[in-house]
C-alpha cells in the first residue's frame, strides 16, 4: 500500500479536526440538555424514580390534555357544577387579582427604534415595536435596566458591564427571530446575548446583532423543557436578565423553572430559590389555553385556593374566550361587567334543564371575554406567587392596551438587592 500523500494527510487531519469540533459541540449540547428537567410533575408528591419512569419514551401517563378534551369535560359538567365553578373563578379572581395596573411605557432609550433610526433592513411593525419598548420600559422603571443617563454615570474603565447596564447578559426564551433582544442591545447596550429557541427561523436578527463588534451572540437551539441553564458554560457566573415575549402556554412555566427551580433535591420535592446570577426577568404571557397541570409552577397555591386539577383544565379552556372577542377597543373592566350568573342559576341550575353547551351559547361575547381574562389573570397571578416564594420582588402589569394586543400582561421580577 502506498503511503498517504501530504494532501491526503492534510485532508485526514482536517477531517479529524472537524469531527473533533463536532463531537465537542455535541458534548456541550449534552451538558446543556437534560431531558424534561423543567417539565414539572403531574403530582407534587411523585418520587424522582416515578418521574423517570413516566418520562420514558412511549409512556402516556402524563399526556397533554388537548383543548378538545378540555371542551368535552366542560360540556359534560352538570349545570349546577358549571355555575359553582364560575362562582369560584369570580371569588378567586376578586381575592388575588386586585393590583393589576396599566403600565404602558415608551422609554426614551427606545426612541432610536420608535423613530425608525435603525438598520433599514430590519422589519418594523409598529404594534410589535410598541410591545417590545413597553417591556423594556417596565424593566427600566422596575430598576432592572439602566437608561443612557444611568450608564453614563457608571461609564468608567473600572466599571463592569453589570454596573453599567444593570446586567451583563440577556437570555431570551422562545426567542424566535430575536427582535426583542435586538432592541435591548440597540437601546440598552447589552453586550452578551443568548437566544433560546427550538425552531430555526429565517429573517432573524442574528445578522444585525453579529455586526455589533462588542456583542457576543449565542443561539441555544433546544426546547426550554430540556435546558439546564446552569450547564451553559459561557453564561456561568454572569449576571443575566431573562426575557420572553409571548411565551405560549406552558413555555412560561418551563422558563420560570429553568431560571429558578432547584430540581429534585434529596427529599424528592422540587424547591425554588433566587438564582444569585438572575438579576431580573420579564415574561409576556400568552396562549393560556395550552397550559397543562403537569407544567404549571403554582399547583400548590391554586390547590390551597380550592382549585382542583380538573377545574384548572376548565379554567385554561375558558381563557380562549379572551382572545376570541373584538379588541378594536378595550373591553370593559371586570367589575363593570356582571356575568349573568343570576339568570343562569334561576333558569338552569335548579333543574339542570339545559346543558352547559346551551348555557355557554347563550352567554354574551363580552361576558365570555371577561371570564376568559379573569381566568388568564388567575393563572398568571399563581405564577407570580411562585416567583415571589423564590425570593424575588415581583409585579404583574398590563403593559399595552388590548387594541395593540389582547395578550397584554407582563410578569416582571428582580432580586430585592438589585443595585
Automatic annotation (TrEMBL):
Catalytic activity line of the entry: cytidine(4) in tRNA(Pro) + S-adenosyl-L-methionine = 2'-O-methylcytidine(4) in tRNA(Pro) + S-adenosyl-L-homocysteine + H(+); adenosine(4) in tRNA(His) + S-adenosyl-L-methionine = 2'-O-methyladenosine(4) in tRNA(His) + S-adenosyl-L-homocysteine + H(+); cytidine(4) in tRNA(Gly)(GCC) + S-adenosyl-L-methionine = 2'-O-methylcytidine(4) in tRNA(Gly)(GCC) + S-adenosyl-L-homocysteine + H(+)
GO molecular function, one term: tRNA 2'-O-methyltransferase activity
Keyword field contains tRNA processing: yes
Record keywords, A-Z: Metal-binding, Methyltransferase, S-adenosyl-L-methionine, Transferase, tRNA processing, Zinc, Zinc-finger
EC number: 2.1.1.225
Family as reported in the entry's similarity comment: Belongs to the methyltransferase TRM13 family.
Family annotation (PANTHER family): TRNA:M(4)X MODIFICATION ENZYME TRM13 HOMOLOG (PTHR12998)
Protein name: tRNA:m(4)X modification enzyme TRM13
Native source organism of the sequence: Quercus suber (Cork oak)
Amino acid at each position: 500500500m502506498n503511503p498517504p500523500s501530504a494532501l491526503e494527510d492534510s485532508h485526514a487531519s482536517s477531517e479529524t479536526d472537524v469531527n473533533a469540533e463536532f463531537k465537542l459541540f455535541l458534548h456541550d449540547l449534552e451538558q446543556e440538555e437534560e431531558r424534561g428537567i423543567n417539565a414539572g410533575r403531574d403530582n407534587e408528591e411523585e418520587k424522582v424514580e416515578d418521574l423517570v419512569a413516566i418520562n420514558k419514551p412511549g409512556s402516556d401517563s402524563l399526556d397533554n390534555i388537548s383543548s378538545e378534551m378540555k371542551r368535552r369535560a366542560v360540556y359534560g359538567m352538570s349545570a349546577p357544577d358549571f355555575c359553582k365553578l364560575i362562582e369560584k373563578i369570580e371569588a378567586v379572581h376578586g381575592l388575588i387579582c386586585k393590583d393589576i395596573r396599566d403600565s404602558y411605557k415608551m422609554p426614551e432609550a427606545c426612541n432610536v427604534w420608535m423613530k425608525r433610526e435603525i438598520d433599514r433592513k430590519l422589519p418594523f411593525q409598529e404594534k410589535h415595536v410598541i410591545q417590545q419598548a413597553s417591556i423594556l420600559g417596565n424593566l427600566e422603571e422596575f430598576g432592572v435596566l439602566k437608561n443612557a443617563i444611568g450608564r453614563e454615570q457608571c461609564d468608567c474603565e473600572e466599571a463592569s458591564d453589570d454596573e453599567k447596564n444593570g446586567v451583563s447578559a440577556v437570555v431570551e426564551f422562545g426567542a424566535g427571530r430575536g427582535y426583542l433582544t435586538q432592541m435591548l442591545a440597540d437601546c440598552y447596550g447589552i453586550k452578551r446575548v443568548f437566544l433560546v429557541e427550538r425552531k430555526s427561523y429565517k429573517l432573524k436578527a442574528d445578522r444585525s446583532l453579529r455586526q455589533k463588534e462588542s456583542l457576543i451572540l449565542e443561539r441555544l437551539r433546544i426546547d426550554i423543557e430540556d435546558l439546564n441553564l446552569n450547564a451553559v458554560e459561557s453564561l456561568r457566573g454572569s449576571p443575566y436578565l431573562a426575557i420572553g415575549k409571548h411565551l405560549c402556554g406552558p413555555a412560561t412555566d418551563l422558563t420560570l423553572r429553568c431560571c429558578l427551580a432547584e430540581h429534585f433535591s434529596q427529599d424528592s420535592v422540587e424547591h425554588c430559590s433566587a438564582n444569585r446570577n438572575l438579576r431580573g426577568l420579564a415574561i409576556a404571557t400568552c396562549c393560556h389555553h395550552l397550559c397543562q397541570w403537569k407544567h404549571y409552577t403554582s399547583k400548590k397555591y391554586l390547590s390551597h385556593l380550592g382549585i382542583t386539577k380538573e377545574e384548572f383544565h376548565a379554567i385554561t379552556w375558558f381563557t380562549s374566550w379572551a382572545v376570541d372577542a373584538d379588541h378594536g377597543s378595550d373591553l370593559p373592566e371586570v367589575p363593570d361587567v356582571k356575568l349573568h350568573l343570576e339568570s343562569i342559576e334561576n333558569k338552569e341550575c335548579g333543574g339542570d334543564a339545559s346543558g352547559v353547551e346551551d348555557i355557554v351559547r347563550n352567554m354574551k361575547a363580552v361576558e365570555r371575554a371577561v371570564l376568559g381574562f379573569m381566568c388568564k389573570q388567575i393563572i398568571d397571578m399563581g405564577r407570580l406567587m411562585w416567583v415571589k416564594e423564590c425570593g424575588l420582588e415581583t409585579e404583574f402589569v398590563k403593559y399595552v392596551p388590548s387594541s395593540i394586543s389582547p395578550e397584554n400582561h407582563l410578569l416582571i421580577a428582580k432580586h430585592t438587592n438589585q443595585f
